[in-house]
Amino acid sequence: MDGIDKRLADSIDHRTGWLSQFDQWLEKNIKWCLLAPALVVVLVLGVYPLVYALEVSVSTFQISDLSPGEFVGLANYIKVLKDWHFWNVMRVTGSFVLIVVPTELLLGIVIAAAFDSDHPILPYIRTFLLIPAMIAPVAVAILWRLMYQSEIGVINYILSLIGISKVEWLGDPDVALFSVAIVDIWQWTPFVFLLVLAGFRGLPVDVIEAAEIDGASYLQSMFLVRIPLIKNVILVASILRFLDAVRAYDTIYVMTYGGPASSTDVYSMYTFREAFKWFNLGEAAALSILFLVILSVLVPLIFVKGLGFRIENI
Amino acid sequence: MRPPKPVWSIVLLLAITVLLTHCGAPSTEVAPTQTSVPPTPAEAKAEPTTPPAAPAEPTTPPAAPTQAEPVTLKIIETSEAHGYALQKLAPKYEEMTGTKVVVEIFPYDATYEKEVLMFSTGGSDYDLVAFDCIWAPLFQENGWLLDIAPYMNDPDLPDIKLDEFIPGLADYWDVVGDAVYGIPHDYTAVILAYRTDLFEEAGIPGPPQTWEEFHEYAKRLTKDTDGDGKIDQYGFIWHGGIPDSAYGDWIVRVQGFKLPEDQIEHVLNAEATETRFMKYPYGVKALQALLDSMPYAPEGAVGWGYGESIQNFTQGVGAMYLDWQVMFSEFNDPEKSAIAGKVAFAVPPTWEEKNYVVGGWHLAINKFSKHPEEAYKFLAWIASDEGQKAMIEAGSLTPYKKFVFESEEYTSKYPVFVPMGQIAEGRTFGAARTKHFVEMQQILFEQLQAAFTGQKSAEEALQQAAIEIDALLQE
């Protein structure tokens, strides 16, 4: 039987020799084969547009026929850097990020800590808390714009009932950015809450119980045990919110259009105007590349150097 | 037993991946709003956008194509009354002529983007394009619109009489030398809406004729009506929150000044190479007048767009309101307005001369259209008296032909037509005629808002705007 099996196996190997070679090649290069479709997508949708944007950013773009035009070197970059709008949007975007990201993280952690319990009512309340994150940003912006109306809006009406004089939520340049930030915080804190809650729920129970047995109070357990254990979750949430906040556009566009007096004019709005309202595509491309460079420097600085985030801990 | 090799499962996985990517992603195109005339599947499929060979400028219209298939004209419009009116009239036109018309409607910004992108790629997706008059210089200078003068001169085709339109529309925006690049099909002017009941209560005999009167009336009409120490009735409503509205509130005050001899309009010189509103005093005076009146308007109006100002006026917050008359359709509608029946309309105040700012949307033929003659016939119908009447009946209450304002039938039925007709008899101006208008308006918006919020004086704000716009015009 063994002899017959061996002769049979040898004859099969002989007839399917090319398959055997292919099989060996595949086993050696399996990772590239599996990565190939994703790599193609990244090349086509990511790398090519980036290279094209680089080309456009160093040329004069002709709107009449959408051709790159002549090479102008760094002229578009210099023009952008000399424009007061660039520094204004950098300041406004930076301020917006500094307001919304830490606030959302803090609120998200606090709410997640409150919901980290097995009380039967909590899942139902949790569902309601997630509703803001499920609404389209434009709808949220329209809703809040109506509520913020100074004369007939509900927020000023409620404030008037408790004796507070009306606030020009979207008409006062000193207040408008905070007003827009409140909307972002209202909408995206649930997202942070969800991530952090998942982190808390995934913690090993024995570690927490051990801390309690050792006499740790609730706050000590929270700050010295639980939060350090979900540090990576918090850092992932902060990176995601950071990247979303620097690209904020639709909410601000609907609520304030960048005003009043450019006090809510963020980077994406400025870039969009240059690209699609005025078709200054060379300058818009230069703005996009500059933005990429700035983020490429900032993200490692803040999240790796600053907060000690390690790539291998993802 | 040896475990099965993963070869075929991996090959199968790759094959599935290739098949899925080959099927392609769904289109992310924003679906246009179409209500009365849904396209057939053939029409819904986008036309190819490969740039055609550069066509020679026709001196005579091309011969009518012999086509067995009925022609379908596609029109791109915006979400305003004239767009919806064209949609409603499409079946009527098809019934009359056999030419099918499909009207696709988009929001304002999307209309602009789609048109520019279509023209830039030499696309013929749409045969006829509706555009805001301020876009006309850009479209014309890039050679994107078909010159219809040869068609107008063709005795076998219907005529379009340009002198039958409201002055300041076709003559200012569509006629360039001997060429004619389109027709107006929407006429808007800045009109004053005012509360007759509040005027009567305050003993004011009628609408203000001058800006000085406007300021005085606004002051008198600003009051605390319920005795709680807070102002709840304002003299006027305005809106500084978006470029178009901020510019509009300034320019309506600029236009009332006498135009200097060497000027054709108040903002730019005749060649559109430099600004004029700082070389003459009217720019700063107009802005200062608005700033001086701001205490008699809601403080938040600096951030309002059209929506907020309409809402506040219809809720009775203000006694006067200046805006494009197309915004006034709800004021006397009892279902939408708390002040229905209490609003009258008048021409805006002035300083020295009866100059008025007018604007509106125009309709033109895409230079790359495959059906230019059929498109011209549609234009000619819209430009005719019959077409104008049809547009009004279809709900576009922004008539563009003079006879409407001379007709008792229309002016008695639509009171807002009275001041519109008076404006048409005055000296009318379009906005500054430059392909950089959209960018220029943004620059003015930013500086005007700096003045509105007290960050700059009127002079500083306009000086900075002039510097930036002059640099832009020199590019």
Please provide a written account of the structure.
The complex is a heterodimer of chains A (314) and B (475). Chain A is an all-alpha fold. Chain A is built from 15 helices and no strands. Chain A has helices spanning 2-15, 17-57, 75-82, 84-115, 122-129, 131-134, 137-147, 154-161, 176-201, 205-213, 218-229, 231-246, 250-255, 267-277, 281-306. The longest helix of chain A has 41 residues, at 17-57. Chain A starts with a helix and ends in an 8-residue tail after the last helix. Chain B has 475 residues and is of the alpha/beta class. In chain B, strands 2-1-3-11-6 form a five-stranded mixed beta sheet. In chain B, strands 7, 8, 9, 10 and 12 form a five-stranded mixed beta sheet that branches. In chain B, α3 (81-97) links the parallel β1 (72-78) and β2 (100-106). In chain B, α10 crosses α11 (282-293) and α10 (243-254) packs across α18. The longest helix of chain B is centred in the first third of the chain and has 17 residues, at 7-23. Chain B is globular. Chain B starts with 6 loop residues before the first helix and ends with a helix. The model of chain B is unreliable at 23-65 (pLDDT under 50). The interface between A and B is large, with 38 and 48 residues.
